[in-house]
Amino acid sequence: MKKVLVIGDSCSDVFRYGRCDRLSPEAPVPIIKPTRTTGNGGMAINVYENLKSLGIDADILTNDIRPVKTRYVDEVSNQILLRVDENDIIKQIQSSEIDKIDFSQYCAVIISDYNKGYLSQVDIGHIAHLHPLVFMDTKKKLNTWAHGIEIIKLNEKEFNENNDWIYTNRNKINSIMTRGKHGAVLNFYDEFPIEKEHEVRDLSGAGDTFLAALVADYIKNSDIRSAIRFANRCAAWVVTQKGVAIVDPEKI
Predict the structure, then answer these.
(1) What is the pTM of this model?
(2) How does 216-245 read in b/e, with b if 16+ C-beta sit within 10 Å?
(3) Which of 40, 57, 143, 157 is most exposed, with the fewest beta carbons within 10 Å of its own?
(4) pLDDT (tens digit, 9 = 90+) per residue, 36-89?
């Protein structure tokens, strides 16, 4: 059984690309002339779509009404000029929905918590109690509610904000700090550099790709170090693409 459940907040990512050839005469801001628009599911849905692309059978439990993140991007430089977030608060999942889940059919659970309201601390603690192998990426401040999570993945800023709690609980959880072009660090001291540098075009969604790839490799090999190296390679590739890209296994 190699099926994974993803639980967490989702959004719609919209990218409006255009040309910026001059500044506004009314204010010192660039004028963008939109040329094309792309869109895809983001946050938890992005984790889910990356799992599927990597050949993993997966289900997702997420919000139906989704915030929309619209980025206005200069198509020449790929520089984001403006991001507009609409309907940014998500309705919390009902506890009865969690209780209905047959967790025995999943080899792993991924919590993709962007702290938009879909999952409370109590919800996450309950999920961790119901399944022995839970991976989590969260924007919440960590505390005792995170006990029971097997592996917590945070970016460098989030990790530093939770450093004291993670260090105090280092014997209870595995922690992964992602550091962009500098790779990742497992449990404070075990460093995993990026094997091959790539031209970075867009960082959007790279953390979701890392999380999906980490779990995809781990459930196949049961080796967290192998999983981190694979996740590094996947994340390093998606940042070479514009927008929120889904990992292509044939190009890794």
Answers:
(1) 0.93
(2) bbbbeeeebeebbbbbbbbbbbbbebebbb
(3) 157
(4) 999 999 999 999 999 999 999 999 999 999 999 999 999 988 889 999 999 888
What tokens does 171 get? 């014997």
* Residue in the block written with tokens 């550091």: 179
Could you tell me which of 224, 55, 205 has the C-alpha nearest to residue 150? 224
How many angstroms separate the CA atoms of 68 and 209, rounded? 20
CA-angle at 162, arms to 161 and 166, nearest 5°:
155
Residue boundaries of the structural domains of the chain:
3-251
End-to-end, the C-alpha distance of the chain in Å comes to 25
> If you ran DSSP here, which 8-state letter would residue 86 be given?
E
d(CA 45, CA 171): 31
Instruction: For residue 207, give the 3-state DSSP assignment.
Output: helix
Q: Kindly state the average pLDDT of the residues 155-178.
A: 96
Q: What is the pLDDT of residues 107-142, one digit of tens each?
A: 999 999 999 999 999 999 999 999 999 999 999 999
Residues 195-219 pLDDT 10s: 877 777 767 789 999 999 999 999 9
Q: Which CATH architecture group holds 3-251?
A: 3-Layer(aba) Sandwich (3.40)
